[in-house]
Amino acid sequence: MKFWELLSLARTAPEAMGRLGDSPAWTEYVGWWHDRDALIRARDRAKLDHELPDEACRHVLEAVPNRYWIADGTVRRTREGTPEPTYSAVETFDRFGGSLLEEVEERGSARVPDLDD
């Protein structure tokens, strides 16, 4: 997942990005997070498009409370109290990847080709 995608997903739980400080291997990204407004203004594609380690993404997404459901080959963010089976941000990331997850957040849903519900 790209750094900007993780930033987008964590906007519902901004403190989640601070979890990048839990590992010495990710400390560089904490600085990026603190400087995110400047990175966005400068359109620093090297940092914004940087592919983060999956382990770092999972660690941050564990603190993101968003839930998702899958129906008819489409992933959607779930509503509170939905009776359908739902999936955490980490489960959805592991199944479909960060780009699809960010698309769901941005557009409300994303199609998954050849999905076995």
TrEMBL record:
This protein's name: Uncharacterized protein
Superkingdom as given in the UniProt entry: Bacteria
Biological source species: Dactylosporangium cerinum
